[in-house]
Amino acid sequence: MASKNPSFFFLLLSLTLGLWSLIFPASSSSSYYYYSSKDAASDDEGDWVLLQSSIGISAMHMQLLKNNMVVIFDRMDMGPSNLSLPNNACIQKPGQPPDCTAHSVVYDVASNTVRPLLVQTDTWCSSGSLIPNGTLVQTGGYHEGDRVVRTFTPCDDSSCDWTQLPVPLGERRWYASNQLLPDGRVIIVGGRRVYTYEFFPKTSAASATFYMSFLKETCDGYGDENNLYPFLHLLPDGNLYVFANERSILFDYNRNRVVKEFPVIPGEFKRNYPSTGSSVLLPLWLKGDALPEAEVMICGGAPYGAFNNSNFKRVFVPASNTCGRMKLTDPEPKWVMEVMPMPRVMSDMVLLPNGEVLIINGAMNGTAGWEDGANPVFNPVLYKCYLPDPARRFVVLSPSKIPRMYHSTAILLADGRVLVGGSNPHEKYNFTSYFPTDLSLEAFSPYYLKPRVSAMRPSILSVETTGDTVLYKQVFAVTFQLNQYNPRSQISVSLVTPSFTTHSYGMNQRLMFLEVIEVHQLSTYDYKVTARGPPTATVAPPGYYMLFVVHAGIPSQAVWVKVV
Questions:
Q1: Residue 61 to residue 124: CA distance in whole angstroms
Q2: Among 338, 410, 454, 498, which is least packed, fewest CB within 10 Å?
Q3: CA–CA gap between residue 127 and residue 137 (Å, rounded)
Q4: How far apart, in whole angstroms, are the C-alpha atoms of residue 214 and residue 194?
Q5: Where would I find the Glyoxal oxidase N-terminal domain in this sequence (predicted)?
Q6: 241-269 pLDDT, tens digit each
């Protein structure tokens, strides 16, 4: 994508487009459900805290690890960062001056500190997954890094760093997507002008890649591809849901065949990069051995041609203000469309431990790409997917003061906060433009962390399993403390996977509510909830999860468990 020299016209443009989007909102069918302004902003609008004004790099990619450390990394082809490597370490690439700065860090949530890491090849616009042992497997990138596999294994001291594996990927993976599978493998799908998928671990450099015609069919052409970073969701039956552009399929990756094609999402909007929307698999509710219903939600995006308009003509069209929900397990799935309080592109969707969805970051106009977005969205939106009245599901929350545009990220932490960082819509680091490169980290605290509800917040005392391991179908107990128990409110136990997040997509993000068998009071403030583990690895792929106890919609802090 061509670099452009931003100027002060972005300020006037952003103000003009903001007024435009209020007067002329994105078009919607009369069959859509509309947001009601009476539900905007309330006493529950949340709080922002600036954690670090600069971590030295811009947080383009983030992954929470099982020890509550967060691996963060940027790209390597835009010059030095603002953080030096330790011990005079440098990377020397052919024809380039030595680079002695870090392009990756590990962030310690508890101490609010960062440690620089050494990554050797370019990780720009790459993908990743945690594998069952808790190691981050990061795949692809740009230039010399586009076929590289890197790993980061968590440690509790300063000894761990990136490891680059000797066996490369079968094809270049730039703007690809990953999903952990029931057998512990990772599927890696797509990339720019790559219409195949492959698996990790790699047995050899000649390991197979498999052609996927759907990826070719959903590409709109150079620039406006609109099918990069396809949305992947593993469904309870073991098949893979794949969404790209405006189409989606149920895919059997073992037999390389399309099981079914779903209806096209309504509206004149594209939903994948560069018309970047976001997607989550809504919470799975487990009961016995039955496979749960699975429902996908996709929000935001931009109309066809939006990228070329912004990139070449400097016309920033309004983004989509719609979300679509579809029950994938219905006999005849259909999209149900809803209208957000404002249009959004490049926003992140984060599953909160109580089952609500946080929509955060992004812009109201333009697309992803270098200086191709305008009119940042400062207000997150809470989506209460369980409310029967669609007009009451969206709640506008407290704004950040920092524009989080292209290359921004957001992830859930084990304490219930949402870690937010990044935003670099420029070819290089640029701290003087209207939307400057941002190196900060913030935390957004949802309403359930307010002091006024602290008495209703459970505090986990123990998980009664061997070695914090939850077996499939295992009945186990969690003891917790609760100062103010409301017997009319449900006690639930949720498992949440830590997602690998980049480009508005939380790969492997998954939340399930376990079947609760009984709740027993042990003493005045102590309780025990007995729950059943997930039924199969197709419902809950093996690996580390955050376990929360939720009371009256208020989650505890999580403890880490391993599902096997």
A1: 9
A2: 454
A3: 9
A4: 11
A5: 60-448
A6: 999 999 999 999 999 999 999 999 999 99
